[in-house]
Amino acid sequence: MSSILFVSQLPLPQLADLPSERRASLLGLACIGHSSEPWLNELPVQTIAVPLLGDAPPAIGEFWTSAGACRSGMADGIRFRVNDNVLFGVVEADDADYPAQAGASPVQSAAEDAFRRIFALLDKEGYAHLWRTWNYLPEINAVRDGLERYRQFNIGRHDAFVASGRLARAEVPAACVLGTRTGPLTIAFIAGRQAPIPIENPRQVSAYRYPREYGPRSPTFARAVLARPPGQELLFVSGTASIVGHRTVHVDDIVGQTGETIANISAVLAEANRQALSAPFTLADLHYRAYLRRAEDFAEVAAVLAASLGPDARIITVQADICRADLLVEIEAIASHSMGSC
Ligand code: 3EB
Fold this sequence. Notes:
The protein is of the alpha+beta class and 342 residues long. Helix content is 22%, strand content 34%.
C-alpha cells in the first residue's frame, strides 16, 4: 500500500529536525508565511506569501507524506513527486512574462498556460484526475484593462479545462483562489489515478454555473471532492464563503459571514457523507485554513469558530484578499479517514 497521509501544520523551523526517512517520504508541502530552508528546494514546495494571524509561528508547513516510495520529477517547469497513487506538484507563472495579446490578458495567458502544463504532465504521467488545486494570485482584486485579475484568471483556467476535455466530462477539482502580497501566480495540485467524487452544496449554485455577473467565464471548481487512494478516504473542501445561491450575504458583517461560511461547510459535509464509505465526516475531523481580508477581524472570527467548531479545532488563519471584493472571510478544509485494514 502506498497511501498518502495528511500531516498538518508544523512550525517550519522544525523541518530541519525531521529524520531523513521522513523527508524521503514527503510528497511535497505548502509553506505558509515565510521560509528560506535551502533543502526544501528538492521538493515541490508552494510558498504562500501571506501573513499568519493570531498566536502562530512566523511560518507553518503543511505536509503531504507518502507511506510508500516516492519519485521526483521536473517537467515543463513543474516540480512534482509521485507515489503509486498520487502526484503532488507546484507550478508558477508570472504574468509579467506573458505579453498582452489581442483577446487575452497576461494573467489569462499565465493561468491558461499553467493549467495546460499541469494537464500535459498529468496525462503523460498517468495521474489524469485532478483532485485539488490551491491557487494564489497577487493583486487578485485589481482591475487591469477593464477586468478584475481574478476574472482574467478564470478565463484562462476555464479555457484550459475546456481544451483538455475535462470540463465537458464535468471533471473539476476542489479549489481555492486567494490573493498574495508578492510573487507569481502559484498553483499547487494533487492528482490521482482514480477520478474523485465531486460534491456540490445544495445551498449554493455550482460555481461552474455562476451567472455572467461574476465574470465572462465561471470559476472551474467543485465545492468538495472525495478521493480514495488505497486504504484511505480524503475529503477536500474548497474555499467556502458567505454565499447563498450565487449571491454574497452579510455584506460588511464579519460575524454573519463567518457563521454563514460554517453553515455552508456543514452542508457540504452532509452531502459528502451521503457518498462516504468511511465513518461520517464531522466539523471536528477537519483541518482548516481561514483567510481573512482584514487582519483586524481575527478575534471576532476566532470567537465564532471556537463557538461552532470547539476550542481544539485545527485552524491556520492568514490575511489574504478573497476573490470577490465583498467577501471578508473564506475557509477551506481537509479531512482524512482510514478505511480500516486494507
Ligand atoms: C465562491 O464560493 C467563493 O475560483 O476556484 C472559492 C473557492 C471561491 C474556489 C475558485 C473561488 C474558487 O465562489 C470563491
